Amino acid sequence: MRKMKPFVIPLLFFLVVFVAFTLENLKTELKLPNEGWSRSLPLQTEKIGEVKPVFKEQNGMQHVYVPKENEVLSFQVTDKLEVKDKQTIPLSIPSPQDFWVQGDQFVFVRDNQLIHYDGEKESVLDQDVRGMDSNPNNIIYFKENEILTIDISSWSVHSIMKVPEQVYSTVLNDTSDSFISVVKSSKQTTKQVKVTFHKPDNKRSYKEQIILDQEEQIYENHFGFYFIENGNDVTVYYSLFNNNSGGKSYKIFQGTNQLNANTDWNFSLMTFLDNKGTKLENPKFIQYGVDENGQAKVLFTTRALKSNDKEAVNVYEARADGDVWKTELRSTTNYQSLHPYWMGEDSVMWLNLVGYKEYTFSGASKNPEVIEKSLNITKVDIKEAVSATVLSLFQGLIFAMSSVYWITPAVLFALVIYIVKIKLMEDEDKRILYTILALFLGVQFIFIQKFFNTHYYMFAPDFLAFTGSSFVIPVMLALLSGAAVWYGRKQDWSKLTAICYFAVLNTFFLSLVVGPYMF
């Protein structure tokens, strides 16, 4: 036991710091993404690969369909994020793509064939099909140079139009009979992208309005078009992917115009800001919607700060506020989120990465019961809190390396005395020893003030970031180091050994307490 005395106080102090930092990190893990929203909760489904789920509202319930190998997983999600009526359908649908579903009937594209599944068997409706889009009442699909529709009552196909360019995509929204077509034609070094809005005039004809017609560079891709109709006003959104000079970026543009207007469409870049005014870049997996007040809202994922010191690809919801879009965090998961979707007005769900190419569904809700449930501490919360503590303590080692700045003057003074008047060192003259100690603490106290900067006060917990902490903490840790020397010093130690032990302990304590937040 006597041999362990020098290590008792350092070990106890380490345990106290470790527990305190872990509890502080646990508070961060338990923090709600925004007031009135729950933390992320896993949905009781199963692990799946990286596929695109399809969300459909049927009979007032949200249904989720997940294409898997040779089957489709289907389940319902309640407003309390409970999974019900989980079943599998023996049907092979390639992912990612949208498909139409109603009851046990499906329409989808596989191997360039448009297929109708009636719950028992598959029937080929058309050949050489390149893609499709749908809403509950409409199915539109396209071939190389033709756009067609399906009469759901008879499962017959009808041509809407033929175009000279290659059809790139067709886009419906959830409620409208209108649609957007995107065609692209290749040039020598560029592509020409032409986007047209089509509004039904009568049963078999459409009024057309070109909303975008411009060159697309070889490193660009206009995609993800969506529109919202409000009388004669139409708002169109799209994403622009840019892969120029090795740097990839995603941006969203918005434009509003009136049908049959003679003015050109003007699109402006949408700027997303979080609650701290930080711009969120590269929004992906965009979902568009309209809130209860008829105002547009956007759901997307991007990499940003989840907390002061942790980044993750999380889900954000955005609404327009003047010329910018103010965002609110919706997910608190720690890694990568994909394909977010609104489950009514008060819930959101998405795919959450949990392992190598493995995902599960997670969700968040405004339901009070869900919020309360989400505050329960889980094994994942404890694991993440402990991991964050271990990582921060390792970062403190960088601070320990900086101690050379205040150790060096004391060491140089001791060397000079040793060379000039060695007897004073051998006799352990108190004046010399106190001067060494004063140089160590004095230079440290002056130098360490620079580390208590904006970064420290931003990231350090409140109990370490109070007014005057740059003076109080070094003094308190110096006193603790002295107490540890007094308690743990062995009888055969010289005074110089005790001073060295003090310097090591003091640096160790500072590295544990303030080191993790200095850089």
Structural summary, described in words:
27% of the residues lie in helices and 40% in strands. By secondary structure, the chain is of the alpha+beta class. The protein has a domain at 2-26 and 386-517. A five-stranded mixed beta sheet has the order 22-26-25-24-23, with no helix packed on it. The protein has a four-stranded antiparallel beta sheet with strand order 1-29-28-27. It has a four-stranded antiparallel beta sheet with strand order 2-3-4-5, with no helix packed on it. Strand 25 and strand 26 (324-329) form a beta hairpin. Helix 1 packs parallel to helix 9 and helix 8 (469-488) crosses helix 9. The longest helix is centred in the N-terminal third of the chain and has 25 residues, at 5-29. The chain is elongated and about 105 Å long.
List keywords for this structure.
about 525 residues, alpha+beta, five-stranded mixed β-sheet, four-stranded antiparallel β-sheet, about 25% helix, about 40% strand, transmembrane, membrane, transmembrane helix
Output mean pLDDT: 90
Question: How would a crystallographer describe the biggest sheet?
Answer: 5 strands, mixed
First CA to last CA: what distance?
A: 38 Å
Number of helices: 9
Supply the helix-strand structural class: alpha+beta
Q: How do the strands line up in the largest sheet?
A: 22-26-25-24-23
What's the count of strands?
29
Short summary:
The chain crosses the membrane at residues 397-420, 432-452, 464-487, 499-518. With 519 residues, the protein is α+β, with helices and mostly antiparallel strands.
